[in-house]
Amino acid sequence: MVNGIERPLDLLNNAKGKEVLVYLKGDKQVVGTLLAFDIHINLVLDNVREMQNNETKRNLGLAFLRGDTIIYISPASTALKKE
Amino acid sequence: MVNGIERPLDLLNNAKGKEVLVYLKGDKQVVGTLLAFDIHINLVLDNVREMQNNETKRNLGLAFLRGDTIIYISPASTALKKE
Amino acid sequence: MVNGIERPLDLLNNAKGKEVLVYLKGDKQVVGTLLAFDIHINLVLDNVREMQNNETKRNLGLAFLRGDTIIYISPASTALKKE
Amino acid sequence: MVNGIERPLDLLNNAKGKEVLVYLKGDKQVVGTLLAFDIHINLVLDNVREMQNNETKRNLGLAFLRGDTIIYISPASTALKKE
Amino acid sequence: MVNGIERPLDLLNNAKGKEVLVYLKGDKQVVGTLLAFDIHINLVLDNVREMQNNETKRNLGLAFLRGDTIIYISPASTALKKE
Amino acid sequence: MVNGIERPLDLLNNAKGKEVLVYLKGDKQVVGTLLAFDIHINLVLDNVREMQNNETKRNLGLAFLRGDTIIYISPASTALKKE
Amino acid sequence: MVNGIERPLDLLNNAKGKEVLVYLKGDKQVVGTLLAFDIHINLVLDNVREMQNNETKRNLGLAFLRGDTIIYISPASTALKKE
After folding, report:
1. Which is more confidently placed, B82 or G22?
2. Where are chain C's structural domains?
3. Which of A69, C19, C76, G8 is the most exposed place for a label (fewest CB within 10 A)?
4. Closest by Cβ to B64, choosing from C2, C72, C82
5. What pLDDT score was predicted for residue G48?
6. CATH number attached to the domain at G8-76
């Protein structure tokens, strides 16, 4: 499952088109489909939902997230499978 | 609808001339028409309104927003459509 | 009115010699006439007033503002016209 | 045991494929298997668990951690052996 | 009075040898004679006084101020004239 | 004792293989043997102990510390000798 | 007394071998003899004392201080002479 991850950005490349959980500074969490990223870890997600206590707080549709506010990014399939 | 987004800045390019919701550090939100942006994610918006609890708190007209205070940018049409 | 803004710095160039509202981190607001700026968004303003609740708290005359403390800059004419 | 560590990144290189404890800003701790890192100290971990008071708070599976939120990284074998 | 200010650093150049008010992050204010500055806005001031509520809290003599803690710098003559 | 310190990194070079006290942002202190450092002041320490009120709070064994969370580094022999 | 200060680093150069007061972010103050500095304003001090309310809180001996935590540096002779 983790084949082909030699550099950190490989994880993001593998996650394109899939749902990811993004944890932001200030305890903010969003879930969405990863469409694009760059070396600054700026992301574009689609079908974005801000989450709070595992419930959707706000639907954003498309969103551009600035990389420097991100703490971690986890493919939702692996994050949710084990929760 | 998300065609043509290969890099994060493509989203901003597609949103030019349209309304965007910008979420800033310190829980500040503004809505306005995106006129210009650069690689630092500095933005110029027109018809800017500072929002609080979905109500307009202040009208700013034109404004230059520094990129490093931005958490996310969402085209208002997709953000509002689903809210 | 927004003609000629292709890049964010165009807004600042158009605002030279005019009054701008500058919103700083830490909820500080100043109003003054924009004399100069650079690519770091360092500004020089004249006739600077620190504002609080729409009242002048302190007159500073000339001031150099470091760019990295700035959240947004709005030409005062458009900001005030709609307020 | 510490042979071959001449530069800080050597420690991360030695820890590949092993469990590490990562302490993040904001008192957040995660444990996981180190798969990849880069010079920004961005990490990819597998089998990630957020820890609180030595108990697992959340299972994340795979995760990309941005380097600038990291305070320290300790190979879990040495950290746990002595605790 | 504001002749010759085409770039922000021109203000600092004009203020050399004169008293300036420096407002620092964390609500700290110092007044002193500007001796030198560089492009990082590092400053050397002489006859430095830390100010609190318009009163001198501490005399520092000479001091080197790191640029990244500075919010604004105002020539004291213009700041004090209008206060 | 302080011979040979012409540049700040010389202190770290002299301290290799010796115990150092590292004071981190957020009032965190660790003590350990300095194995390696780089120009970002990233450190690798061995026999790391998190300290609180002069008592060991946690043993970490080996650890990689990111430079940007460090306030100061003091060779423990000089720090402890005088305490 | 202030001859020869044309650039901010000249002050640090003049202060080598002399006692300086260093004010750090988070209201921390240290006094020590300046041995070395670099362009990042990283410092090495000897005979370092952490100060609180003009009293010595802790003796550190030699210490490396990271530049980005520093607010100001004042040669102690001028700071203390006037206090």
Report:
1. G22
2. 8-81
3. C19
4. C72
5. 96
6. 2.30.30.100
Q: What is the CATH number of domain F8-81?
A: 2.30.30.100
What's chain A's length in residues?
Answer: 83
Which of these, D29, D59, D65, lies nearest to D47 by C-alpha position? D59
Residue reference for tokens 């007394």:
G1
Residue G3 pLDDT exceeds 90: no
Q: How far, in Å, CA of D41 to CA of D59, rounded?
A: 22
pLDDT band at E83 (very low <50, low <70, confident <90, very high): very low
**CATH 1.10.287.110, domain A8-71, yes or no:** no
Interface test with D, best of F46, F64, F69, F71 (most D CBs within 10 A): F64
pLDDT by residue (tens digit) across D23-66?
A: 999 889 999 999 999 999 999 999 999 998 778 888 999 999 99
What would the two tokens of residue C36 be? 């100069």
Rounded to the nearest angstrom, the minimum Cα separation between D27 and chain A is 12
Write out chain F residues lying below 8 Å of G38, CB-based: 7-9
- Give the nearest partner residue to E6 out of C36, C59, C68, using CB atoms: C36
Give the tokens for residue B26: 């310190």
Q: Inform me whether the pLDDT recorded for G82 exceeds 50.
A: no
Given an 8 Å threshold on Cβ–Cβ distance, is A61 in contact with B70?
Answer: no
Contact C64 E72 (CB under 8 A): yes
pLDDT 10s digits, C1-36: 456 899 999 999 999 999 999 999 988 999 999 999
Report how far residue E8's alpha carbon sits from residue B1's, in angstroms, rounded to the nearest whole number. Answer: 44
Helix (H, G, I), strand (E, B) or coil at G10: helix
pLDDT at E6: 93
3-class SS at C8?
A: helix
> Which residues in B have their CB inside 8 Å of a CB on A?
1-2, 5-12, 21, 25, 41, 67-68, 70-75, 77-79, 81-83
pTM confidence score: 0.89
What is the dihedral sign for C-alpha B44, E27, E36, C60?
A: positive
Angle at F50 between CA G52 and CA G57, to 5 degrees: 15
For an interface test with A, the pick among B12, B13, B23 (most A C-beta atoms closer than 10 Å) comes out as B23
Confidence of residue G83 (pLDDT cuts 50, 70, 90): very low
pLDDT at C76: 78
CB F64 within 8 A of CB D74: yes
Across the interface, of E2, E8, E67, the residue whose CB is closest to C43 is E8
Question: Alpha-carbon distance D74 to C63, whole Å?
Answer: 47
In chain E, the residue whose alpha carbon lies closest to the alpha carbon of C57 is E83
On average, the pLDDT of chain A sits at 89
> Higher model confidence: residue A40 or residue G82?
A40
Give the CA distances from residue G75 to residues A56, B35, D5, D12, E24, in Å, rounded to whole numbers and listed in that order.
56, 50, 39, 41, 20
Best mutation site among D28, D74, D77 for testing chain F: the one with the most F CBs within 10 Å? D74
Q: D8-73: which CATH architecture?
A: Roll (2.30)
Distances from the Cα of C19 to the Cα of A23, C33, E80, G65, angstroms: 40, 4, 21, 42
